[in-house]
Design a protein that fits this description.
90 residues; mainly alpha; High-Potential Iron-Sulfur Protein, Chain A; 2 domains; two-stranded antiparallel sheet
């Protein structure tokens, strides 16, 4: 029975570490964007409507992201829209 020798040179160890780190970064970025999208709720669950409710409008909400996005509600939202998760900017 013969055993193969392992190449444990400094160069091969560093190369493996760099490859593992790069793969980890790629996976983290991919899963991070999926997790963010999955954490948003649907417009119907948030009772979203494309018109304001009184003085409350999406573009005056703390969750608003220009030009047509929201931190918590999925999909494009109107700057003059409203949902039940409205939270005024301070």
């Amino acid at each position: 029975m013969s055993f193969q020798t392992l190449d444990l040179s400094r160069r091969s160890l560093l190369r493996g570490a760099v490859l593992a780190t790069g793969a980890g970064v790629v996976l983290a970025v991919g899963f991070g964007s999926q997790a963010q999208a999955a954490s948003k709720i649907t417009q119907s669950a948030a009772n979203y409507q494309p018109i304001p409710k009184g003085g409350q409008r999406c573009n005056t909400c703390s969750q608003w992201l220009q030009p047509t996005d929201c931190k918590v509600v999925n999909g494009p939202v109107s700057p003059t829209g409203w949902c039940s998760l409205y939270s005024a900017k301070w």
